[in-house]
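Practice record 12: protein with adenosine-5'-triphosphate.
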Amino acid sequence: MNTNEHGDVIEVTDLRRVYGGDGRGRGAFEAVRHVTFSVGRGEIFALLGTNGAGKTSTVEVLEGLAPPAGGRVRVLGHDPYRERAAVRPRIGVMLQEGGFPSELTVAETVRMWAGCTSGARPTAQALDLVGLTRRAGVRVKQLSGGEKRRLDLALALLGRPEILFLDEPTTGLDTEGRHSTWELVRALRDGGTTVLLTTHYLEEAEELADRLAILHEGRVAASGTPAEVTGTQPARISFELPDGYHLGDLPPLARLGVSGHETAGRAVRLRTDTPQRTATALLQWADRAQVELRRLDVRSASLEEAFLRIARDAAAHGTDHRDKETAA
Ligand SMILES: Nc1ncnc2c1ncn2[C@@H]1O[C@H](COP(=O)(O)OP(=O)(O)OP(=O)(O)O)[C@@H](O)[C@H]1O
């Protein structure tokens, strides 16, 4: 069996991961706390979170590198730790640090890897996919940081994986490299590959992810499509007050559906859950007053704004359990 009845190729239910301790739970640290999510075949799913949120700890369990301390994980219908032999040939893993022998050339490195990979793509094709063809004869130690990331990606793609795990795939890449990696990831998805991605770049998640989960201190603080996650946050309306006008000259902000505001000189920024209503009322006021609202801009919350607010709210409601005892 490769998927559940919903077509999910990754299923994570109530996952826990615990580090350290004396075996009886004393001094242990629970890095992943009852995390649940699923990824459908052919989806790009992003795991986001602040440093230490538990992304790598979660992904390592999915890659079969560590057993869960609790909960259930299935990858292509298998337990990735106990049935590693069944899962490993069907997944591709791009780690944060590749660690290749630095004296080998790029092409030699790919060929060496291909020797351990069943059904590997031809070396030239793997290098072409990641834009490293012209660097094939260069020693790995001479590659830039961004080129090393691309070599990592070429190796992860060698076995034509059904599921690709990408741990911060574009860290160190320049803008062009980042965009070409995004294009490649989309093309792989369109070809049916499932991609699980961790990233610190919220723009990357916004560009790529079909769905995402934001982790905070080991828990899922928000999840859904990017539109669903940003849709929980207020929209923003900004404009410049006309000359001679003050904020108090506008209709009462609460009556416009405004939940918060900031000003800087003549610039005004309003937050609202009802952007259409607020913008309409503002424009009607400007029309009546016969003034122009210069630099008027109405936009939904960006993923970055949503992320910061969700992380802040989660921090305000949660506690850091690092020093607390945890039953493993
Ligand atoms: N081997 C370990 N032993 C003890 N604690 C660990 C170990 N590995 C990770 N942790 C802790 O578990 C928590 C989650 O770490 P993890 O690396 O999963 O976070 P992350 O979300 O991937 O962070 P980053 O974005 O910084 O890579 C952190 O507090 C980290 O210090």
